[in-house]
């Protein structure tokens, strides 16, 4: 990857795209530190970081701590991600959207427009919900800034947070258009990296200045780095693993020309569904704690963290079991959405292809479905291990390093970094082809 970056900076056009991407990401990070007048950020920080809610902690890590601080970009890219997921699910269940998704660029533009509209709606709903709940149950808003008018305060902050979410979406789309890679993924990536960097670099420096140098801290940091390198290497190994199903195309004579006769493969990745099963699983399993913490006066979310989600309480095994079942369920659900054996079998048959040893038609679809289910099973087991193993492994470096990288954050970092490397390689290849043609 470092060699790819080195070669990319030698090309003027790609170097310009990288600088544009970095500038837009800098604008996003500045927005993550802009405070909202009238908001007590300490209340947000206490609930998100110390409340034991895994999903809110994940969303805070994705936004680079903006959610925990209640800043302008507190909602981050969350509304857009939710809107994209909803549109994907609707495209499967609604025939009109499914046809629209298969109409090429025009269809993609219309779906993108619908996604933006849905993002705006979700951002408004989330902003109002967060503001009202925190204001009523946790006294997070100072109404004296707005002449003690609650309705004016709610409208103002809803507009501010909705605007922040829409600006974040706009920055992501501009990175995709003028930069390198997917802008939304890069915003999530930089948020997680900044959160980890704060705990790995800034926090130890502050502790050293306040308490002096400690050899144990240095040893713990070295142990953490070694464990992190091993975990990242294993995840990269699994992320790149795939099952390649050979496909042979028969020769066809059309007029005076002969077509086909070539061999290709159908690659099926072990982690083809990415981190979405983990995000969905953490979101659903955190709903009880989220709703009780927001609507139940006097409820302490630390009880849920200590007895259920913390991994040490008497009911921790229930949490682990339910989380694994949710990961398995969403892994198979996403596999069915992304990989349709019937469509692939029909496409192979229409182009005169076949899988060696398998008859075309329904036998091919059944064979692909069986292979997909097996690989999805191993992918679900892998995600279940990733959900628990990193935190356990990082605990050997000390309690302060357990939450530096969330389990989902590790997968996001790996997948985005690999995708960024592929994008750079493809742009370098296109540049080389252009030079050859000239």
UniProtKB/TrEMBL annotation:
One of its GO terms (biological process) is protein targeting. Its main location: membrane. GO terms for cellular component: plasma membrane. It is found in: Cell membrane; Membrane. It is a multi-pass membrane protein. InterPro entries: SecY, SecY/SEC61-alpha, SecY_CS, SecY_dom_sf. The chain crosses the membrane at residues 18-36, 117-136, 151-172, 184-205, 217-241, 275-296, 316-337, 375-394, 400-420. Keywords: Cell membrane, Membrane, Protein transport, Translocation, Transmembrane, Transmembrane helix, Transport. It comes from the Bacteria. Component of the Sec protein translocase complex. Heterotrimer consisting of SecY, SecE and SecG subunits. The heterotrimers can form oligomers, although 1 heterotrimer is thought to be able to translocate proteins. Interacts with the ribosome. Interacts with SecDF, and other proteins may be involved. Interacts with SecA. Belongs to the SecY/SEC61-alpha family. The central subunit of the protein translocation channel SecYEG. Consists of two halves formed by TMs 1-5 and 6-10. These two domains form a lateral gate at the front which open onto the bilayer between TMs 2 and 7, and are clamped together by SecE at the back. The channel is closed by both a pore ring composed of hydrophobic SecY resides and a short helix (helix 2A) on the extracellular side of the membrane which forms a plug. The plug probably moves laterally to allow the channel to open. The ring and the pore may move independently. This is Protein translocase subunit SecY. The gene is secY.
């Amino acid at each position: 990857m470092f060699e790819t970056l080195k070669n990319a900076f030698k090309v003027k056009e790609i170097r310009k795209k990288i600088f544009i991407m970095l500038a837009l990401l800098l604008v996003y990070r500045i927005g993550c530190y802009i405070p909202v007048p009238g908001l007590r950020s300490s209340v947000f920080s206490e609930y998100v970081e110390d409340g034991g809610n895994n999903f809110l902690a994940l969303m805070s890590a994705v936004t680079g701590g903006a959610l925990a601080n209640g800043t302008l970009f507190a909602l981050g890219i969350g509304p857009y991600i939710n809107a994209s997921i909803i549109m994907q699910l609707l495209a499967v269940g609604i025939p009109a959207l499914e046809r629209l998704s298969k109409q090429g660029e025009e269809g993609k533009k219309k779906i993108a427009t619908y996604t933006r509209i849905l993002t705006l709606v979700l951002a408004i709903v989330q902003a109002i919900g967060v503001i009202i709940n925190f204001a009523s149950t946790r006294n997070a808003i100072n109404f004296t800034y707005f002449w003690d008018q609650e309705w004016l305060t709610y409208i103002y902050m809803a507009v501010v947070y909705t605007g922040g979410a829409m600006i974040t979406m706009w920055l992501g789309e501009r990175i995709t258009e003028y930069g390198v890679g997917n802008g939304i993924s890069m915003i999530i990536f930089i948020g997680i990296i900044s959160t980890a960097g704060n705990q790995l670099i800034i926090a130890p420096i502050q502790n050293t200045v306040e308490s002096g140098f400690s050899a144990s801290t240095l040893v713990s940091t070295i142990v953490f780095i070694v464990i992190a390198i091993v975990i990242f290497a294993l995840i990269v190994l699994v992320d790149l693993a795939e099952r390649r199903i050979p496909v042979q195309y028969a020769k066809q004579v059309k007029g005076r020309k002969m077509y086909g006769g070539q061999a290709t493969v159908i690659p099926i990745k072990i982690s083809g569904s990415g981190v979405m099963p983990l995000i969905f699983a953490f979101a659903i399993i955190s709903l009880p704690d989220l709703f009780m913490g927001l609507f139940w006066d006097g409820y302490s979310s630390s009880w849920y963290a200590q007895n259920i989600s913390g991994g040490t309480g008497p009911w921790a095994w229930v949490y682990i079991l339910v989380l694994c079942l949710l990961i398995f369920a969403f892994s198979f659900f996403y596999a069915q959405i992304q990989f349709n054996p019937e469509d692939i079998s029909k496409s192979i048959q229409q182009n005169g292809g076949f899988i060696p040893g398998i008859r075309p038609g329904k036998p091919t679809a059944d064979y692909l479905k069986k292979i997909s289910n097996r690989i999805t099973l191993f992918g679900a087991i892998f995600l279940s291990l990733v959900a628990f193993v990193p935190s356990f492994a990082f605990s050997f470096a000390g309690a302060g390093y357990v939450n530096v990288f969330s389990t989902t954050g590790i997968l996001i970092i790996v997948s985005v970094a690999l995708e960024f490397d592929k994008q750079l390689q493809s742009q370098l290849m296109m540049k080389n082809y252009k030079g050859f043609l000239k």
